[in-house]
Design goal:
- The longest helix has 13 residues, at 51-63.
- This protein has helices spanning 43-49, 51-63, 68-75, 79-86; strands spanning 18-23, 30-34, 39-42.
- The radius of gyration is 13 Å and the shape is globular.
- It is an alpha+beta fold.
- The chain has two domains: 13-42, no CATH class; 50-87, no CATH class.
- Bound molecules: zinc ion.
- Residues 9, 11-12, 34, 36-37 line the site of zinc ion.
- Zinc ion binds next to loops.
- InterPro entries: IS1_transposase_InsA.
- This is Transposase and inactivated derivatives.
- It comes from Budvicia aquatica.
């Protein structure tokens, strides 16, 4: 079974201390809690709210030899969108 990459904290940009934090009651969106900055975030919500941050994360993940497919999974952004940021 393939191990799912963890989402990146949208506040401090790390993955190591991010934990699942239940789901939004209305939207069903997975929420996460970062133990480092003690904040919660929702990947889809943040994605819509902060495209510039996503673009920076895509660039950083690429520099760490992640494939577009891996980046798409980690950031929960569509593969087409990831490629858009790469190009
Ligand atoms: Zn954090």
């Amino acid at each position: 079974m393939m191990k799912m990459p963890k989402p990146i904290c949208h506040h401090c940009n790390q993955t190591r201390r991010v934990r699942k934090h239940g789901k939004g009651r209305i939207t069903g969106t997975q929420r996460y809690y970062c133990q480092l900055c003690k904040k919660t975030f929702q990947t889809k919500y943040i994605y819509k709210a902060n495209e510039a941050l996503i673009a920076r994360q895509v660039t950083r993940l690429l520099s760490q030899d992640n494939t577009p497919e891996m980046i798409s999974t980690v950031l929960q952004v569509g593969l087409t969108k990831v490629r858009y940021y790469i190009l």
